[in-house]
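User: I'll paste a sequence; please echo it back and then give the predicted structure.

Assistant: Echoing your sequence first, then the prediction.
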Amino acid sequence: MHGSAYILEARDGDVLTQSVLWELYRNTQELRDVDAQGQLAPDSLPRQPYLYSSFQTYTQRPFTGVSTIADHVQQALLQDPSLKASLETATDQQVKLAVHRLLSNPLTGGLQNTLSVKASSVSREIAGETIDYWTSPGLVFTVLADNDKLGGQSAVRGGLGAGDAALDKEKFNRNVQDVLRGDQRSFELWGIALDQNLEAEDEGRIAGIFIMLTVVTVVIVVGLSLRSYWAMALTGTGLGAMMIWLGGISNLVGLKDGLVIDFIVPIAMVALGVDFVVHAVRRYQEEKSAGYAPGPALRIGLAGVMGALVLAMLSDGIAFLANTASGIEAVVHFGLAAGIAVGSSFLILGVVAPLALAKIDRLKAGDNPPPGILGHTARAFGGLGVASMSANGVLLLVVGITVPGVGLILGSIFMFLLVPAFWLRFRNRGAPEPPAQETVAPQEGTLEAWLSSLVVRLACFRLAVLLTAAGITAGAVVFALQLEAEFDVKDFFDSQSDFVVGLDKLDEHVGQRRGEQALIYLEGDLASPQALASIQLLIQRFAANPHIARDADGTPFIQEPNVVDVLTRVTASPYARDRVQEMTGVQIDDGNGDGLPDTREQVSAVMGYAVAYGVPLDDATLVYDAGRVREVLSYQPAAGQDAAALLTLGIPDSREQTTVRVAREALTQDLAFLADSPVITDFGITGSPFVREGQLAAVTSTLQTSLPIAVVATLALLLVALRSVRYALVTVVPVVLVAAWLYGIMYLVGFNLNFVTATIGAVSIGVGIDYSVHMTVRFREELGRSADRMNALRRAANGTGMALAVSAISSILGFAILGFAPMPMFSAFGILTAIMVFLALAASIVVLPSLLLLAAPDKAKVPAA
């Protein structure tokens, strides 16, 4: 079976009224009619009925697809001659009378478990009869469908990421929900965790708009900072081309699509791409400002910055590929995809973009007058056009609309790069290459001068800076170590979404009564009386476990069917016993009155019959068909295999990971005595809450493993590239600081470690090493030209420091916009990435310069702090 649960809440506060139950009854009838016509089927599946014909054990009635208290009230009204009504014509008092008779009857009293935990009753007289007058603000029920028809596979749900079969089930669930909702005149209805992957896709598309705005902002800020339309156009189209490369290469090497690769990696690519293009283009512009023509400026500029770009690319790649040490496929694929993103960013924006910019500059005529109002307007419209068109292309690629997305990006390349470049070439054909510009010295009062002055002044107080940084880092490490792996759907989905609201309503109306499914797996010679005695003892232990859901009467909730339930139902039914004897030749007896067959041979006969034919009630009705029995019991004695069985429990409050951990520990203690059993050979705990706990533990372990690997591998690379232990060490230190500061801030502002926030660690290493490498390489280059360390630091801050600031500002503004996305997962990623970029900038221009002065050879006296 495939089950989907739904919760209904009355608009007037009581579901046990004529208007609510009549509307629900009509909608469930409509559901069966629609299914009979094959209209519940997702587009990808055949049009056929999918609802499952089953048997409700606590009312002893068969049903198709769904059975709610509305069906039973309708039947009670029709069968009671004293009422002479149906749900359509009954009064509220008649409905209350029917509800009383159902809930007070031992055969149908189990319907109380479908009502809200807030349900209550008072004594009241109606039609001369004193009754329990029940009211309930909500009720819960399940719709059953044929799992095989829907694609099969396990129904255990734990995290995001699903194949086609799971998505088809979620689409089916949504179709069911739409029919059950109807007009919702007297009630509201929500599914319970029925479409997590579709919800992620829907909210991801909405978040995609914010990703688009992030790209637009980044492109515009880069253009304004570099004071160049062409730099803006190359950045926008370059980011789009990077997304095409990422998608194409990922598919080529077989990386699986998923939330992280489809959304998180492209977001990280924006920060990486901007860093490469800003450093390459600004260095080229620096050489032009120094008086060189475009050709020589490109050669000198790239020669100066290429070492830093290559080193940044390699160190970035190492930082991300360190995630491949994880045993988690999604994390491994994230590392590989991010490595592809780094290489693409370097080639497209670090190499091709400055080459293209120099080529365009050579097309300009040397005596062109400055552009007028028309020219400035055209550039403004062109800049906005390339930013928006490229960003829309990125948006389409991110949400999986590939062909139109590629078309938009190629269109932006054609419209905003090729056409203007050809027009420039046509206008200036025959004109000489523009001459070298006059050298422009840094002016007082400019941002470059202010930044370089700030960096130098702070470096003069390097001892105080380093001690302060050490103190802050020590505190951050203390906080970071207190971060815990937690999972709550509100960390991922919009709190106003149906998905989250449904779970909130579940907590409100179901509470401790059901909870999330936990599965106890048992394997061995289960037909032996000793094994059955152990299973019964285990069930008794569950009665004393406070972390297991309980029915309205306080007994532990153990879902039916289960192996003990199957055996007791067959043993208690004369018809079922006769059928087993007829098919197997074994007579079933219960001489000791424990509800179970007396001998191993009898137990084996019942198990074999049940997995082949089900559990019969009479010649026309099955309590459980064979398919349902096989969901909880595997028994093939002819094949010489051990039997296997599942017990399904409920874990309340499983949205709190601490609750899941405590429940697992308590269940482990309940199961511990089975280790000494000679007939139960294997046992364990699984189910979606514990699968999720395992995933979170694995993510935390991955973080603890990949970060040290990334730092050590990066240090080894820097040792080789810089050929200096001192410079390699001081370049890595800011990266470690950024990671520590970031996780400390995460703890202080209330973030937890989960599937998304854990990736920030890898991104912080990748981006942080970029900033440090550029500053270190530029400082060493300037130190080679001057014996004065402070002068070298000033020139490095004036050039590379400003490039770092431009890159950081554009990334921070872009990711701050992403922080407004309604999906908390993307909002958190945007906020944390913006914080991380700011920390990387601070570490590279505040802490790193002081470290560089300590590491630099003593060629000249440095002013004391």
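The chain has a mean pLDDT of 85. The two ends are 74 Å apart (CA to CA).
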